[in-house]
Amino acid sequence: MRTAAGLFLFTLAALSNPTSPAAAEAPVASVTGGSIRGLLDSSLPGGGVFKGIPFARPPVKDLRWREPQPVQPWKGVRDANRVSASCIQPALGNGRFLKPLAERYGTQYNHTPITISEDCLYLNVWAPQWPARNPAPVMVWIHGGSNTIGSGGENGYDGAALARKGVVVVTLNYRLGVLGFFAHPELTRESPHHASGNYGLLDQLAALQWVRQNIAQFGGDPKRVTVFGESAGSINAGLLLCSPLSVGLFQRVILESGPVLSLAHHPVAREKGELFGESVARSLGAPANLQKLRDSSPDSVVNAAREAATHAADPGFVLDGWCLREPPAKIFAEGRQLPVDLMIGNNGREMSVFRGPSSSGSANRGLAGDSVKETIRIFYAGSASVVTGLFVINNVLGRTESADSWINDVVCACPAMAMSLLNAGTGHPAYVYQFLRSIPGKGEKTLGSFHSLELPYVFGAFRKAAWNWLPFEPVDYALGESIMDYWTNFAKTGNPNGPKLPNWPAFDAGSQASMEFTRLGQVQARAKSRPAFCDLDVKGLRARLK
């Protein structure tokens, strides 16, 4: 029999030892389908982490190319302590992008092989407090990767650093490539909505519906949800602003390096998407046989899509009449997009990573002057001569910063400005940024603020394997704290500003103000920071709709 003194010492030891069963009990939550057991993570003191939570039934066999279905209930407590498999994609995943990028910096990306499966519709949650107390704002991340690679479970998207700022963070998977974006007339006929094509977007909507129904169990406020994404994830989020299926699912959006109004990302008519789908089906020897299409292995479907793409462009998104009913440009121009608070921006040299080293040793090949002129002609039609006069385009070959600047403006900056101006018509603010920080490398040093470089700052992921190959400096860690403060403040109130932060003015037609995260890692507001020809982009958008 224990003495009173012995019981006292046992209790004291339990309270002081964080690894004791009493002090380190794994968090348990009740969600759609049943109970789940997460884990305690030293990177999120006082919080709870849940990984690999199913938000839809596995889209396999007869559920391939169908809208996501509700999860099947399970008995007992399901472990939610590791990320799920990634959706079907090339074996290297994002390593296809990061590995050669690291080599250009004279270092090495330590890639861990990924597990892929069609059974991939899972999400992850970081709760800042456990047990949950006061409702906290929610940030839902949609990863990028051209809608062909990537996963919400990548270590570079670990939500702990953001959650430490007082928000609940959710990351998710969605179907990719031909398994996520595939239209076919037989699929359209069997659909109760007479729609096919945008299954990856429907997965994202299903995850947001799960958040609305379950996030309170993790201390999240379902009425304060911010969707944020980068590259293709940003484009997806922008498309969700145009979908009638999004109503009530989120109140704010952060779009990083992927404005949906860019001419490069317009959905096509369903019939055009179906033509590509028929080409894929013919390659599989099943032009109108859905059962054979669904019985085909994922590899054979992916290979058939690759073969079809040699003859016709994969259209990606389609106007299916259900998820996406009208072109985003038309919806924004008429002010009918989802009324949300908006933060939007881009990096200074987005395209620098997509061109290989030149023979002269500069980091990227520039664009030939004739190519630039032709692209300006296509994008700006009657205003082409004005735009051409505003850019240095002669002898652009080798003058990569001029080319990158122009591409950024056409693909990102001007469409972002158009979205910001048009969003003002909904009565909600817009905040615009430019990320210009440049990391010097051991090898070539002219990549600048390349596409995706803001991500380790947004997630505080400098030491994660996805990014620890870059030679970050103390100024980068400080800049990351500021960026995370801005992002989470926006999620909390719709305004990124807060104590000890430089003021970030809202964007309007008069000031056209933006926040710059500078090349040297400083933070400063700027007025009239967009090129003059961006006004032509907004006018041209409206003109194209007449």
Q: How many H/I helical runs? A: 17
Summarize the amount of helix as a percent range.
Answer: 25-40%
Distance between the termini: 89 Å
Estimated share of beta-strand residues: 5-15%
Oligomer: single chain
**What is the CATH architecture term?**
3-Layer(aba) Sandwich
Strand count, sense and barrel status of the largest sheet are: 10 strands, mixed
By secondary-structure content and strand pairing, the structural class works out as alpha/beta
**CATH C-level class:** Alpha Beta
Mean pLDDT comes to 86
SS elements, strand count: 17
The CATH homologous superfamily corresponds to: Alpha/Beta hydrolase fold, catalytic domain
The CATH topology comes to Rossmann fold
Summarize the structure in words.
The chain has 546 residues and is an alpha/beta fold. It has 17 helices and 17 strands. It has helices at residues 4-16, 95-104, 160-163, 177-180, 185-190, 199-214, 232-240, 270-283, 290-295, 298-308, 328-333, 369-380, 384-389, 400-423, 455-459, 474-493, 534-544; strands at residues 28-31, 34-37, 48-54, 77-79, 122-127, 136-142, 168-172, 181-182, 197-198, 220-230, 252-256, 268-269, 318-319, 341-347, 430-435, 514-517, 523-526. A ten-stranded mixed β-sheet has the order 3-5-7-6-10-11-14-15-16-17, sandwiched between helices. Strands 1-2-4 form a three-stranded mixed β-sheet, with no helix packed on it. Strands 8-9 form a two-stranded antiparallel ribbon. A hairpin with a 5-residue loop joins strand 16 (514-517) and strand 17. The longest helix has 24 residues, at 400-423. The protein is globular. Residues 1-22 form the signal peptide.
